[in-house]
Amino acid sequence: MQAQNTASEPLLEVRDLEAWYGESHVLHGVSLDVREGETITILGRNGAGKTTTLRSIIGIVRKRKGVITLRGQDLLALPQHKVARAGLGYVPEERGIFASLSVDENLSLPPKIADGGMSIADIYRIFPNLEERRNSPGTKLSGGEQQMLAIARILRTGARVLLLDEPTEGLAPVIVQRIGELIRTLKTQGYTIVLVEQNFRFAAKLADRFFVMEDGRVVDTFATTELSARMGSLHEYLGV
Ligand SMILES: Nc1ncnc2c1ncn2[C@@H]1O[C@H](COP(=O)(O)OP(=O)(O)OP(=O)(O)O)[C@@H](O)[C@H]1O
């Protein structure tokens, strides 16, 4: 069947994705898709395979099978550095900033992968707290500041599709709120966002659609408008 219109076609599509760490078969057929400008959230218990899904998309996990396309381009065939160049930015759970370098230095280092990356001035406009800390080394930043710096670094590159792994983990509620505002700002600027979250209440305010993972598979998907009707089954999947 023909697609009805191009606007609803996925920008990023993952189909029947399987992945392995060595001999350990971890993903058993993950299927999900994200449209341009959309925010999706991947939910699931610890060990369900959420992080592995992001790592497989970005190409850190190399032993994979299935289909991953971005704007129709086959990402499975690309070496990792070319995946980033296709316009994907990944913020890992461990944040990956340079601890010994200052905020300014961290923001000066990311490679440009596409046009439209934010300037350092743009970054400081949306992260005023980072500007106040611009000469502080990464080690001296709070968890929330580190998270913001990790996201800011990706925004410097020009990536328009952001894969964010548990950005709120371990952060105080007031900082979680700040991260939520930031993601909302990015959404209004047209970024496409894949958010892995355990904090369901946080994700509920941001996502357009949800994908629920269990044992290396997507077992449910629904739009935010269906959320209240799904609460019962979600409690079961997530054990919350
Ligand atoms: N480097 C690794 N080597 C071997 N097995 C791994 C590795 N990383 C994760 N796993 C296993 O893969 C499975 C999926 O883990 P993954 O980190 O993707 O889950 P997750 O849903 O992101 O959970 P969490 O919220 O705990 O990070 C788990 O069984 C985990 O133990």
From TrEMBL:
The keyword Transport applies. Keywords: Amino-acid transport, ATP-binding, Nucleotide-binding, Transport. One of its GO terms (molecular function) is ATP binding. Pfam families: ABC_tran (PF00005). It comes from the Bacteria. Gene3D superfamilies: P-loop containing nucleotide triphosphate hydrolases. GO terms for biological process: L-amino acid transport. SUPFAM superfamilies: P-loop containing nucleoside triphosphate hydrolases. Residues 12-240 form the ABC transporter domain. Belongs to the ABC transporter superfamily. This is ABC transporter ATP-binding protein.
